[in-house]
Design brief:
The chain is an alpha+beta fold. It folds into three domains: 99 residues, 3-Layer(aba) Sandwich (Rossmann fold); 69 residues, ATP-grasp fold, A domain (Dna Ligase, domain 1), CATH 3.30.1490.20; 241 residues, ATP-grasp fold, B domain (D-amino Acid Aminotransferase, Chain A, domain 1), CATH 3.30.470. The chain is built from 15 helices and 22 strands. The protein has an eight-stranded antiparallel β-sheet, with helices on both faces. A five-stranded parallel β-sheet has the order 3-2-1-4-5. It has a three-stranded antiparallel β-sheet with strand order 7-6-8. The longest helix has 17 residues. It is globular and about 60 Å long. The relative contact order is 0.11.
């Protein structure tokens, strides 16, 4: 195992990784920006090192500085968490060049799956279904012919995109040119790459993802799937495991996810994301080459510690289980608690947390990055915590989650807590018959009662 683990992140995922390292007996180190000197993850680490000013580009995204810190303190592994540098192929390359183990896949794999166009080609070659679309980038001159061939409505997507950026829905020819211009400009600003392509729009889709694990010895397994269809601006808010699918579809999704991981020589923990249409046909969406925000619910239904398994794989060890050993028990649901105001289109709500009384009880789990008295900064993602509940079935999981949400006390900042209390009581959610339009159609964009 490693001599020392540096966690190159902040918030709840940094706390999660630090705890996993402690369980494995690995000395841990945290990095903090000037704004995070007193943060929870800093209080949990064995040692703390400042990495720069508050802006992320000068601290948590400062690759050279982070690797230098690792060298100076004798850390032989860096866990990037999610966000920041977790899917940065250059950072993975830099770690390898300097003899430090990046807890995740190689830079080549990250780049291969980070390009949506490139990933589409790889998946098609591997026999994984993809949404009908253009196989190369489109220009303003040839986009209309490509869109007509697919048939409107279409989706304009940035090849380097993510989180809904560089993406536009186009339902009629007259609006295509403007959508291309706006999407290209957004993609260039966000990713430095304005390459666009077209996909046939899948109306009212469900978003289902499969957790995979792969070691350096050729073993690849899946840990079943998660339903992630409750989203705002293409960002997930509520996730369930397992999804509402039959065993045949579950098996086919798992096989497709394993095939996807094998096709790129994947190593580590990753997630293969799919869209399901109204007829339960599934299509590859993307692969996230890191641990997911919503990994706790997979851990709750399988009993597998995904973060510790990441570290075991990164240390060169074989997966300690085969596919036949992975079983699913019960149902788990996670809600993401953000410092955002749903009444104002989920605008961030920075400030000091004056009251923080988390819930407890059997089957309840909280992954938090804050405590009472902590400051929610304007510099970073406003995710405060993830609240998850497990039950023997979906009905029991919902009942426990509802009780936990009602017990949770949070003051000082606006949060998504009231929104989640409404979601878990909504008849469409209770019936389990929702898709990615749930918030707009049933929650009035988040502000509905």
């Amino acid at each position: 195992m490693f001599r020392k683990l540096l966690v190159a992140n902040r918030g709840e995922i940094a706390a999660r990784v630090l705890r996993a390292g402690r369980e494995l007996g690995i000395p841990t180190a945290a990095i903090v920006s000037e704004a995070d000197r007193g943060a929870l993850h800093a209080r949990l680490a064995d040692e703390v090192h400042e990495c720069g000013p508050a802006p992320a580009r000068q601290s948590y995204l400062a690759m050279e500085r982070i690797v230098t810190i690792a060298e100076e303190i004798g850390a032989d592994a860096i866990h990037p968490g999610y966000g920041f540098l977790a899917e940065n192929g250059a950072f993975s390359d830099l770690c390898a060049k300097r003899g430090i183990r990046f807890v995740g896949p190689s830079g080549d794999v990250i780049r291969a799956m980070g390009s949506k166009l490139g990933a589409r080609r790889i998946m098609k070659a591997a026999g994984v279904p993809v949404v009908p679309g253009s196989d190369g980038g489109v220009s303003a001159s040839d986009a209309l012919d490509a869109a007509r061939a697919l048939g409107f409505p279409v989706l304009v997507k940035a090849s380097a995109g993510g989180g809904g950026r560089g993406m536009r829905v186009v339902r009629e020819e007259a609006k295509l040119a403007d959508a291309l211009e706006r999407a290209r400009g957004e993609a260039e600003r966000a990713f430095g790459d304005g390459t666009l392509y077209l996909e046939k729009l899948v109306d009212g889709p469900r978003h289902v993802e499969v957790q995979v694990l792969a070691d350096a010895h050729g073993s690849v397994v899946h840990c079943f799937e998660r339903e992630c269809s409750i989203q705002r601006r293409h960002q997930k808010l509520v996730e369930e495991a397992p999804a509402r699918i039959d065993e045949s579809l579950r098996a086919r999704l798992g096989e497709a996810a394993v095939a996807a991981a094998r096709a790129v020589g994947y190593e580590g923990a990753g997630t293969v994301e799919f869209l399901l249409d109204a007829k339960d046909r599934f299509y590859f969406l993307e692969m996230n080459t890191r641990i997911q925000v919503e990994h706790p619910i997979t851990e709750m239904i399988t009993g597998i510690d995904l973060v510790k398994t990441q570290l075991v794989i990164a240390a060169g060890e074989a997966l300690p289980f085969a596919q036949r050993d992975i079983e699913m028990h019960g149902h788990a649901i996670e809600v993401r608690l953000y410092a955002e105001d749903p009444q104002k289109k989920f605008m961030p709500s920075p400030g000091r947390i004056t009251r923080w009384r988390p819930p407890g009880g059997f089957g309840v789990r909280l992954d938090a990055g804050v405590e009472a008295g902590d400051e929610v900064s304007t510099h970073y993602d406003p995710l405060l915590a993830k609240l998850s509940a497990w039950g023997r079935d979906r009905t029991e999981a919902i009942a426990r989650l509802r009780a936990a949400l009602d017990e949770f006390a949070l003051e000082g900042v606006k949060s998504t807590l009231p929104f989640h209390r409404r979601v878990v009581r909504h008849p469409v959610f209770l019936a389990g018959r929702y898709d990615t339009s749930f918030i707009d159609e049933h929650m009035q964009g988040g502000a509905g009662a």
